[in-house]
Design goal:
about 30% helix; globular; Ribosomal Protein L30, Chain: A
Amino acid sequence: MVNAMSKVIITQTRSIIDRPLRQKRTIQALGLGRISKTVEVELTPQIAGMIKKVNHLISVKEA
């Protein structure tokens, strides 16, 4: 089960050029948009689902 209070650090590692619009919007919803940009967010079920959909474009670490 996902702990709602845990935080993760998400870094975009690959470009969204030539990706489906759905993946581009997911990256934007995570607060990313360019390579090497990093955000720290709470790991909710919604965020976990977004991470799963674009895991080939990002790297994730526990904060």
